[in-house]
Amino acid sequence: MAIQFTAHEVKVSLKERRKLKTFLTNLFEREGQGLESLHYIFCSDAYLLEINKQFLQHDTYTDIVTFEMGEDPAITEGEIYISIDRVLENAEKFKVSVNQELHRVIFHGALHLCGYKDKSKTENELMRKKEDECLKRYFV
Q1: What range defines the domain where residue 113 resides?
Q2: What phi and psi values does residue 6 have, to the nearest 5 degrees?
Q3: Which residues are recorded as binding Zn(2+) (predicted)?
Q4: 15 CB neighbour count, 10 Å cutoff
Q5: For residue 1, is pLDDT > 80?
Q6: What is the CA radius of gyration of the chain?
Q7: Binding site annotation covers 59?
Q8: Which residues touch 7 (CB under 8 Å, ≥6 apart)?
Q9: Strand 64-68 versus strand 2-7 pairing type
Q10: Beta strands in 8-130 (DSSP E)
Q11: How far, CA to CA in Å, does 75 sit from each of 4, 29, 68, 79?
Q12: 58 annotated as a binding-site residue
């Protein structure tokens, strides 16, 4: 099992990577989801927009795009693309630290891979609740 973090043409300050990897591993265990591999790619708005257009046919900016790459639904092999531009803007918009917003989005992607959705109002409320739980646990 491997968790990787890569920056693609952006700078990102991600401290305590070992702690974060352990937390993510435990998150998957708590949710009863197997984890084979997880790769986070931090990128720009422009890069993520192209991915959004190419693979999801969405012509909009977004903070995150999550892909399940494996064939076994019980075992995650995921790629998560995160726009650092969106993280910076959303941190300011929601009046939280960049570090907190970055971790919220990191956990959001992992929760998607654990089966949580956010399309309906009910799904979105549950996703926000799970994100908040993760943030509280992580930043104890």
Answers
A1: 2-138
A2: -130, 140
A3: 108, 112, 118
A4: 7
A5: no
A6: 14
A7: no
A8: 41, 42, 43
A9: unpaired
A10: 34-43, 64-68, 75-83
A11: 17, 11, 10, 13
A12: no
**Residue 84 belongs to a domain with what CATH number?**
3.40.390.30
Confidence (pTM): 0.95
β-pairing, 75-83 with 64-68?
antiparallel
Please give the single-letter amino acid code of residue 98.
V
Answer yes or no: is 118 a known binding residue: yes
How many domains, in total, are found in the chain? 1
Q: Which of 30, 59, 11, 58 is nearest to 137 (CA)?
A: 30
- Tell me the pLDDT tens digit for each residue of 23-75: 999 999 999 999 999 999 999 999 999 999 999 888 989 999 999 999 999 99
